[in-house]
Amino acid sequence: MTTTNTADKQPQIFVYDDIHPEDGAMLQALYSRSPDSVVNHLEKVKSAGSGKFMSSYYVGYGHASIGDCGVTTIFIENYSMLAAKAIQDNALYSGQEASTRYLDFAAQPMYDPYNHPASKAILDGWMDLYNSSMPKVKEALAKKHPFDATQYKSEKIWQNAINARAFDILRGFLPVGCTTLFSWTTNLRQARDRLMQLKNHPLPEIRTLAQDLFKTLYAKYPNSFTGEEMGDSERYAARSAYYAEQAERDNFVSVQNLLDEERILEEDLEELEQGGMVINKTELDVAGLMDFEANAMNTRPEGANLNRRLGAYGVYQLSFLLDFGSYRDLQRHRNGICQVPLIDGGFGIYPWYLNQLKDLLGSEYAAFEAEVSRLLEAIENLPADVKATPMLNQYLYPMGTSVLTQLAYTVPQMVYVAELRSQKTVHASLRPIAQAMGRVLKGDFPDMSLYIDEDADTWTAKRGEQTIEAKVA
């Protein structure tokens, strides 16, 4: 009888966070072929290197799960809001983006899709409106919400809250072509797959970004890519042709798309324009959730997440109007489907922004409103030699433009978004949407434990405390 000495096979945990992504991928892959400890595998990696292994087993033989194990972070600067959305339109996206709610975007460069004097004049017009209105709005907010030592921990926090609210309001008039900064933490396979899709994106800026990102990654991790992914090689020809054919619908959804696909009906449009929410529950098993998941839904404490198994009961389909700026916040929730809407100006400026400015600017509001109307008309009446298209015109609209937003959410995802986005620190145009989600849930599941902030007031001193600052020693 043969016995095996297992004295050295005791439970152990190791953390390695200082190794090259391709080395990390190789280390994990070796587990699938050898029961040896990672400590010994690490010595092999150091002596042999991961390059040959990755090129042979990941690139050469298509073991995609190996590429999942190599993680990197990419920092992308001074690309448009639409470019950021394209990278982020991915259920596996992780990263951060510069906040229009906390930063002054006055000095950010613009992406002009036409490089024409007429389009430049529109972009400059929005930025002039943003910059000239900022001090007026801050002054009006300071009068409306004066410093109160019992409410604010310091005068600096009060000033931060005033600034944040001013950015909240005037971000609605930043053009979508305004550039931003964002990061992307991804594994190497996901980067490869996403960039191969974006290679055929309908916007030239994003096609160029995809190529530039690939070149940067290929130079950094040459053993994790063939180098042919973004070209015209026969190896990827069928895949590339498919992505090209689907590119426009894969990356944007128009109002007409939703009508054609019967996600909404013609008679729904009037309700949406009046601020309503169209709710479709035909794909949700409400009775099944009530019968089998009542305990899970009704006893959940604040801060706990519903188990994702509840997603097996189907989804809510929700449609509503929202400004593109706040749509961007919703799109960051990865567990639902939140298609990128085509910005066409058909629903005008989201009312919240104009109502705020009407209150704050007083007699100067009429001139502000007239300038907004002039710029919107200029987009619709670009000169013929611009050769304008609805796709490229998106860059010229402001972030406060109303867009038809369509969500497909499971109950766990809807609970999560409703609770998180109903808090007072959330943008005031998005809070009512989250609160409405909470009411829908409560209507279908009256005994469900929900933790929604239903207060209509959106001013909070906490906005002044949401900063990243160095600690004072």
Automatic annotation (TrEMBL):
Coiled coil: none annotated. InterPro entries: Thymidylate_synthase_ThyX (IPR003669), Thymidylate_synthase_ThyX_sf (IPR036098). This is FAD-dependent thymidylate synthase. GO terms for biological process: dTMP biosynthetic process. GO terms for molecular function: flavin adenine dinucleotide binding; NADPH binding; thymidylate synthase (FAD) activity; thymidylate synthase activity. Transmembrane segments: none annotated. It comes from Blastochloris viridis.
